[in-house]
Amino acid sequence: MSIISKKALSKIQPNMTVSLGGGSNVLTLAKDLNNAQIPGLRLYSPSEITKFQCEQLGLNILALNDNMPKFDLAFDGCDSIDQNFNALKSGGGIHLFEKIAAENAKEYILLLPKERFKETLNPTVSLCIEIIPNCLNNLMKKIPQGYTAKIRLSQSVASFAHSPLGNLLIDIYPNNSWSDIEQLNDFLLKQNGVISSSYFKNLVTSIITESKNEAIEIKKG
After folding, report:
1. What are the beta bridge partners of residue 88?
2. Which residues pair with 8 in a beta bridge?
3. What's the pLDDT tens digit per position in 121-169?
4. How confident is the model at residue 65 (pLDDT cuts 50, 70, 90)?
5. How far is 59 from 56, CA to CA, in rounded Å?
6. Is the separation of the CB atoms in 192 and 173 below 8 Å?
7. Which span out of 54-58, 72-76, 91-95 was modeled with the highest average pLDDT?
8. Can you tell me whether residue 73 is helix, strand or coil?
9. What pLDDT, on the 0 to 100 scale, is given for residue 157?
């Protein structure tokens, strides 16, 4: 059991409804949840990989449908988060479903290494946009100067990567810093065919990370 997972596990009480997002820290929490045998838990996941891994452990992951449940707690990872608790969750490409889970949670808690929590967002982490394939060319022409946009490639086959909905993923990087990410994000979300972005604003309620060889929870504000 990692110290981050132990701290997260201490927040989970019997009969809670809990969402488990993506990432290695969430998987460690899932393993510890399986060992803890907390009664009455209702577990969900927006991640196909996490769902599969949990089921391999023997955890029962309930199906998400049109009637999204209200979560007592939603745990997730992230690639970068700033001092105002704005986060980039770009690597997994499932930010649409993770964002829905976050919006339906009383507490949305990120589990992360301490180096990912900085004063400002890491400019080497992309702003990822999910877009309908037919709108790709139009969007690429509208990327403002000062940013580089790349269509995400599949890791396993010679093709583009696709979201769970079959859409394309566009990774956008700043030439310098993410000082204007809010304006860029708002602009991109208004373009035809854009489904969602990996920028999470006003959704994270706390983070659990390491400090001086112990886990701490830092709450927003």
Report:
1. 80, 199
2. none
3. 999 999 999 999 999 999 999 999 999 999 999 877 778 999 999 999 9
4. confident
5. 7
6. no
7. 72-76
8. strand
9. 73
Locate 211 and state its tokens. 């400090």
Name residue, tokens 């105002």.
84
* Cα–Cα distance measured from residue 91 to residue 85, given in angstroms and rounded to the nearest whole number: 18
Q: What does the H/E/C string look like for 166-180?
A: CCEEEEEEECCCCCC
Q: What is the DSSP string of 3-51?
A: HHHHHHHTT--TT-EEEE-SSHHHHHHHHHHHHHT-TT-EEE-S-HHHH
How many alpha carbons fall within 13 Å on the CB side of residue 156?
1
Strand partners, 129: 170, 197
Place of tokens 């608790």: 85
- The tokens describing 209, both together, are 């990370």
Amino acid making up residue 69: P
Is the CA virtual torsion 29, 35, 40, 44 positive or negative? positive
Burial class (CB within 10 angstroms; exposed 0-12, middle 13-18, buried 19+) of 221: exposed
Q: Could you give the CA distance from residue 57 to residue 81 in angstroms, rounded to a whole number?
A: 30
